[in-house]
User: Fold this.
Amino acid sequence: MINSRITDCKLIDLPKVKTEAGDITPINNHLDVPFEIKRVYYLYDIPNRSDRGGHAHKELHQLVVAVSGSFDIELFDGYDSVRYTLNQPDQGLLIVPGIWRNLNNFSGGGICLVLASQDYDENDYIRNLVDYQNSKI
Ligand code: TYD
Assistant:
């Protein structure tokens, strides 16, 4: 999976239940997201100029959702890169293992929700870009 490509990542349209009192987006294991969710975390109070990410994961699958506001995610697979702008709470970006990502351009009040397939494990991170590129050769 370390040789995954950015074409293995994709935007996923999530369900949206509209009620008169507001909208609901449910996310169910295997149904709305193609992995078993083991961990949920979210980024908030993010200064506009923050650069987040700057790493790849060896095994972790993630679904990233802009539940409030907007931000950009650049994906890089050692060969090609692609930039997504996330700004809809009913749309998630699936990031498979082995993909380098940078997050930036956060709007005020932006909240980045991440659904993850594994517990937090620092050993699952590749934080050095040269090490990452060498792992792709
Ligand atoms: P990191 O994943 O590098 O943040 P980002 O990709 O959003 O820039 O994590 C930043 C810090 O937070 C790092 O010291 C580890 C800690 N952390 C946890 O303790 N648990 C977690 O589930 C996550 C995602 C991070």
In short: The pocket of thymidine-5'-diphosphate is lined by residues 39, 41, 43, 52-53, 120 (CB under 6 Å). The helical segments are 129-135. Residues 129-135 form the longest helix (7 residues).
